[in-house]
Design brief:
Oligomer: single chain
Structural class: mainly beta
Distance between the termini: 59 Å
Largest sheet: 20 strands, parallel
Number of helices: 1
Radius of gyration: 23 Å
Shape: globular
Mean pLDDT: 90
Low-confidence stretches: 1-33
Length: 404
């Protein structure tokens, strides 16, 4: 009898293994697992000290500032919806873990649904920050000093992982990390952020990591800015910046402090390859005070869809020749042989799937219907540095790029 039972158990195990193996072989879809609820948080109003899991399909209203204490975790499952009132913010001293999915992203927005109407994620002393497949809209509400707050602010040597998310309508820096933060910023879409100031990805004071496959449209200041410090050059900011698409950035600050596609300064170093820069006030700037010997770049595409565009921050407006600013004169960078540098409208056009040529010179939150996938025949296809990708830009032929 015992032998028979063992035989039946062995058969059941074999069947289970066969079924599992079959399903794994047939399934090619990657999904983000649902977080098992730890201290599940019931739908409704939240404020004050909070820990636990925001649940799929539930809606939460933040009525006052939320604080996650050191040692605590605030997590969110796919499809959780958070509406923020009263210009409130999330102050993260513990762990933030937002894990949405492609089919069911997490959402954070203010009740007003207007730029600059809530305080974002202030994570300056957090223990870890992970944000995936999450929509974050309309941050940058004023702090008590009447300054707009950053969307995601980290000033600590922790892991910061931001992937596959959408951020729009922020009023100041969108991702600001320093003090040795280790960043992974991949495949995100940043749209029309910053008012009259604000960088999109601003990495300082020893931040290290990777910024790749992001789309950045209409940023007030610079799309990707790297600096260390003029007083303490170590630990050094060192970042791989590749396969990003930066379009129409840098116009709302004007000639006094124009924004760039990428800028490197103050003892920072970087590898900058396979990026597409279109219609930015300035393209790639390597400042003389950067670690110039260790700033490596090439295989980048620079394009302007207009001959000139007016800088309206001064009166009378100044016409700006975008092509002359691909490598600004006050920097030490210059085009290299592997770069594709447009010399006229149509020359080295990246051939986006749809592109209306919009340049965001004024209003924050201006929408874009552009589709930055590359059409067949784009000069960016097959012209990348293959150490990173065979193609240029955020959307690549191998499917590893931006998933939006």
């Amino acid at each position: 009898m015992k032998t028979k039972q063992l035989s039946l158990i062995a058969t059941a195990i074999a069947i289970a293994i066969a079924i599992t193996s079959c399903s794994k072989k047939e399934s090619t879809k990657t999904t983000t697992p649902v977080i098992p609820p730890s201290h599940p948080i019931a739908a409704g109003n939240i404020s004050g000290f909070v820990k636990g899991t925001l649940l799929s399909g539930s809606t939460y209203t933040v009525t006052a500032d939320v604080t996650v204490k050191a040692g605590d975790t605030l997590a969110a499952q796919p499809g959780a919806v958070v509406i923020v009132k009263n210009n409130s913010q999330f102050s993260i001293k513990g762990v933030l873990q937002l894990l949405g999915s492609k089919d069911s992203p997490i959402s954070f927005n203010s009740d007003q649904n207007l730029p600059g109407t809530w305080g974002g994620f202030q994570c300056d002393t957090a223990q870890a920050v992970t944000i995936k497949w999450t929509r974050i809209d309309n941050t940058g509400g004023l702090d008590p000093t009447a300054s707009p707050r950053k969307t995601i602010f980290v000033n600590f040597a922790i892991n910061v992982d931001i992937e596959d998310s959408w951020i729009s309508g922020g009023e100041d820096d969108i991702v600001r990390c320093g003090s040795g933060a280790k960043v992974t910023i991949l495949r995100n879409t940043f749209t029309s952020n910053g008012s009259t100031d604000g960088e999109c990805i601003n990495l300082k004071t020893g931040a290290t990591g990777t910024v790749a496959y992001n789309v950045i449209f209409g940023q007030a200041g610079t799309a990707i800015k790297l600096e260390t410090s003029d007083t303490a050059p170590n630990p050094q900011t060192s970042v791989d910046v590749y396969n990003n698409t930066a379009v129409s950035c840098g116009w709302r600050r004007g000639a006094g402090e124009p924004g760039r596609g990428v800028s490197v300064g103050l003892n920072a170093k970087a590898n900058i390859y396979n990026n597409i820069f279109v219609n930015n006030y300035e393209g790639l700037e390597v400042f003389p005070d950067a670690d110039v010997a260790n700033v490596k770049y090439g295989n980048n595409l620079f394009y302007a869809s207009v001959d000139t565009y007016n800088d309206n921050t001064v009166t009378p407006a100044i016409p700006v020749n975008i092509r002359s600013n691909f490598f600004p004169n006050d920097g030490v960078g210059a085009a290299v042989a592997s770069d594709l540098v447009s010399t006229a409208i149509g020359n080295n056009d990246p051939k986006f799937k749809t592109f209306d040529g919009t340049i965001v010179g004024s209003a924050t939150g201006q929408a874009s219907s552009n589709d930055y996938h590359l059409q067949a025949g784009s000069p960016a296809i097959g012209k990348g540095n293959t150490a990173y990708n065979a193609d240029m830009g955020a959307y690549t032929s191998d499917g590893k790029g931006n998933q939006h």
